[in-house]
């Protein structure tokens, strides 16, 4: 009888512990999967800008040196913008960006891939009202540039957005697709480059182009090779 009791206790122990250890093993495994601490970036939903200070960019890129920019490619028809043209250039009618369209015209470029112009950190990824559609903003750290420490790229009217604020992206990585801003325009990419990072989303057109760069000019001066 005594032996039977001991046997039962032992059997119970064997049955019980593997079950109770299981959640512990699982939580260890899931911790191992996430080898990178997620980067949290708050987004101001009214004025539409990332609310982090530049010092935080410094620490994020210091911890992720391989995501510093090694140069810039065009955001469509990668790497050189092949089979696309600019329907509206920077500065034309006070345009603060460039409108990139497929050579086929109309909506033939709807759903075409949009690529990150360079390595960087996604600081904003949201659907925005009133004609903007889906927006992605990426901050790029320029380690060796004589003039700029950071620049920012802005991609607007997207059909799909494939990355989130806090994601680190590579030059040429597909981050979204060309859209119509929910039918407001025929499909195109409105693309901005800025040397003043973290400004509000802005009006798209203005006589005041403080903080904005001519995208094609900037990219051509800063190719990766
Ligand atoms: Zn535009």
Topology:
Layout: H1 2-33, E1 43-44, E2 49-50, H2 54-63, E3 84-88, E4 98-102, E5 113-115, E6 120-128, E7 133-141, E8 150-158, E9 168-169, E10 174-177, E11 189-194, E12 212-213, H3 215-221
Antiparallel strand pairs: 1-2, 3-4, 4-11, 5-10, 6-7, 6-9, 7-8, 8-11, 11-12
Bound molecules: zinc ion.
Outline of the structure:
With 225 residues, the chain is of the alpha+beta class. The chain has 3 helices and 12 strands; from the N terminus they run H-E-E-H-E-E-E-E-E-E-E-E-E-E-H.
Short descriptors:
eight-stranded antiparallel sheet, 225 residues, alpha+beta, 2 domains, Glucose Permease (Domain IIA), binds zinc ion, two-stranded antiparallel ribbon
What does this structure look like?
- The protein folds into two domains: 1-35; 43-221, Glucose Permease (Domain IIA) (Distorted Sandwich), CATH 2.70.70.10.
- With 225 residues, the chain is of the alpha+beta class.
- The chain is built from three helices and twelve strands, in the order H-E-E-H-E-E-E-E-E-E-E-E-E-E-H.
- The model is unreliable at 17-35 (pLDDT under 50).
- The strands form three sheets. Strands 3, 4, 6, 7, 8, 9, 11 and 12 form an eight-stranded antiparallel sheet that branches. Strands 1-2 form a two-stranded antiparallel ribbon. A two-stranded antiparallel sheet has the order 5-10.
- Bound molecules: zinc ion.
